[in-house]
Amino acid sequence: MTGRFRFLTAGESHGKGLTALIEGLPAGLPLSEDDIARDLARRQRGYGRGGRMKIERDRAEITAGVRHGLTLGSPVALWVENRDWANWTERMAVEPVEAEVERVTRLRPGHADLPGAVKYGFDDVRNVLERASARETAARVAVAGAAKRLLDEFGVAFGSHTIAIGGVRAEPRAAIDEEALEADPVRCADPAASEAMIAAIDAAKADGDTLGGQVEVRVSGVPLGLGSHVQWDRKLDGRIAQAICSINAFKGAGFGLGFDATDRRGSQTHDVILPADQWGERPWRHGSNNHGGIEGGMSTGEEIIVRAAVKPIPTLAHPLPSVDLETGEEVLAHYERSDVCVVPAAGVVAEAMVAIVLADAWLEKFGGDSLAELRANVAGYLRALGPRARRG
Ligand code: EPS
User: Fold this and answer.
1) Residue nearest to atom 12 of ligand 1 (CA)
2) What domains sit in the chain, N to C, each tagged with a CATH number?
3) Least confidently predicted of 61-65, 114-118, 314-318, 369-373
C-alpha cells in the first residue's frame, strides 16, 4: 500500500461493533450504504458457517465523509453493528464489572492465542481472540465497498470463486455464470465439485474438524501500468500478496497459474506475445494469461487473477492437545461456537483486499482530489497509451 487509499479498523468480535476509517477517496464520488451492503451480505453466506451468521445482519452505516450521496474528500467513517453484542454485554463490557467473568486459558493450536497472550501479557486469551477473530473482515469488506465503488467508475469489475475445499478441486471453467455462482452453497462454479465439497464439509463437521481450501479472485478492466518494477514496495503483486496474507487464515497468494507454474517448463508457462495483425485491435496481445495480469510488478492490461490459500480454521469442536496458560497442565484446547469451513466467505474477503490494493494503486498512478480530476487524469493516460493498449 502506498497510502493513497488507506484504512484502519477497530472492533472486537463480541464487542459493540466494528469501526472503519477510510482516507483517500476523491471528492464527488457517489457512495451509499447500499453500495456497501451487497458484499457484506455475500460475505455472510456459505456452507460451513456456524451459528453466528444466523445472528448478524451486517450493514455498514456511513457516519462521516459523505453528503447528499457524494464523498467530500474527507475521511469516510463506517460503523457495523455486532448484533451478538447483546449476548456479551457483561463479558465484553467497556467498564469494569462486579461479576466474575470466566477467563479463557486453554490455548488453541494454530490461533493467535499463544503468541498474543504471552506477548501482550494477558492471563485471559479472550483479550486476544476477540480481535484476532475473522469478524474483523466484515469491516474490511465494508471498506472495499467504497474502493470498488471508485473503481466501478472506470469499468473495473471484481469476481471470486472457490477452487478447492479440503482437497476437492474444481475443474477450471472458461466462463463463469455469476448468478449461479452466488447461489451455489460453496461459491464454486463446478457443480460436481460443489457437491463433493459440501460432502467433505459435512464429514469434517461430523468429526468435529475443520477444512481449508483455495479461492480465486478475478478483476477485469485494469489498464496496463499499475504498480512498478523499479522498487520492491511498489510491485503490484507484492502489495496484493501482503494484503491477502493479512486476512485471517490465509497462508499464501499466487498469480495466474500460481504455484502450479512450478511444475511446468518456462516454454509452457509464459504467455506468448502475438503480433497485431492476428488480433486487429491492439499492437500485441498475450496468447494466454498464465501470468494473471501482472508481470514485473505491473498490471499488463490482462485480467488480474489471484489465487489464495486458506488454512483450516483452528477452532475445533474436537479440540487438539494443548496447555493451560495459567497452570501449564496438559489440556484439550478451548472450544467455542465456530465455523467448519470459511472458504466460500473467504473468497469475498480476498476480493475485498484486492480491491483495496487496486484502489490504492489507481490513486497512486492517477491522483486527483475530485472524481472529475481523477477522470481527466485517467483519460489522459489512456490517450497517451494509445487506443490499442487500453484494456485486457
Ligand atoms: C470466529 C468465530 C465465529 C465466527 C467468526 C469468526 O464467531 P463466534 O465465536 O461468535 O461464533 O462466526 O466470524 C464472524 C463473526 C464473522 O463475521 O465472520 C473466529 O474465532 O475467528
Assistant:
1) 52
2) 6-391 (3.60.150.10)
3) 314-318
